[in-house]
Hints:
Order of helices and strands: EEEHE
Mean pLDDT: 92
Strand content: 15-25%
Amino acid sequence: xxxxxxxxxWSNEDQVFVAEAPELPGCVAHGETEELALKNIKDAIRLWIxxxxxxxxxxxxxxxxxxxxx
Length: 70
């Protein structure tokens, strides 16, 4: 899997952990635990890349930053 930056934070509004891959516009997932949010964003990243390739859209190269937890 590519090494995209992932940011995970708690949403008081939704009462879940939210995970974002900021290098992939709109690539967001959530989960009741940090672990589940991380699993879900990894699935979302794979789907984002698959769909971009299917439509011939560019897929950004990961910048290689570390995982971040806020």
